Amino acid sequence: MQYLRYQRxxxxxxxxAGAIAVAPLAGAIGVLGVIFGCLARARGFGALAAVxxxxxxxxxxxxxxxxxILGAGGSVAAAVGAAALLAARLxxxxxxxxxxxxxxxxxxxLVAQLVVDESWAVALHEDGRFSxxxxxxxxxxxxxxxxxxxxxxxxxxxxxxxxxRWGVDAAFPALFLMLLWPQLRHPDRARAAVxxxxxxxxxxxxxxxxxxxxxxxxxxxxxxxxxxxGRRVQRQPAPLGRGRSDEA
Amino acid sequence: xxxxxxxxxxxxxxxxxxxxxxxxxxxxREPTPRISLALLRFSPAxxxxxxxxxxxxxxxxxxxxxxxxxxxxxxxxxRRRTPPLTLLVTAVAATAALRALLx
Lengths: 248, 103
Prior knowledge:
Oligomer: heterodimer
Strand content of chain B: under 5%
Strand order of the largest sheet of chain B: 1-2
Helix content of chain A: 55-70%
Largest sheet of chain B: 2 strands, antiparallel
Helix content of chain B: over 70%
Structural class of chain B: mainly alpha
Number of strands of chain B: 2
């Protein structure tokens, strides 16, 4: 159990800690990558196009949506539009990461490309601090797995029959709940989590995929007073990370 | 240009721009306290939405199925401070087992 031996590193601000924290998911990401590669081939994409898409887009759900829509006879505009909706939550996620990034503009933008749901979540500390090192460790590991598994799936392209039979899909909400758990101690964040879940579920039957997540994330941007009634935002600057005014 | 490559190019460009939006728009500036607090809530709101849709949504339909079992295992394990990998494997196994048992 090498992993358990490394457990003590998990809370650290290092690339290794980020990679270790996200490692349990790498297998599930790999399975998804293989499925994406197979699916893309089945929907008329060349193996090279599938691999290039995984390497450059590096975001699961927009890729699946674009390939699925185009393969089902949809227009280029419909495929790109759906992918953009699914990817739109990356904008505020990138804004959370931005103050932690270092170097020149190009370097910042390059490291920001490593942001996906999973790498972003393990790089964000419970107190709101964002760790660039953890993002790099987790993001690079997931990127390599994502690209390699897409190539494997595209080359093999043998139909993988029903991966969900093995419960692989359950790994994603499981990891997200583990990441959310420590945050539930803060009342306003617990309220935000419940609101986000309810809004997303309420919209799911009525809107295209991607919209429920987008709107659910947007409810967090409601003014502070809506979440902590009777409390005012402190006048003192409380930068993200050191700011504890939400629990003062 | 073939349609597939056009989609690869456009989706890749849009996603890359979205991911770069933070550093492009904010640079290294610290957000104001108001925005900081909103961003602190953003993570739980998005995580809550991801958990809910990946557990209960099947396309555009809402269902209750074996995935809920896996999620309950995680909730119980998290309360007991079970190590993450053990918890993840147990949740996946529980989901697979429920799927095999349920009609």
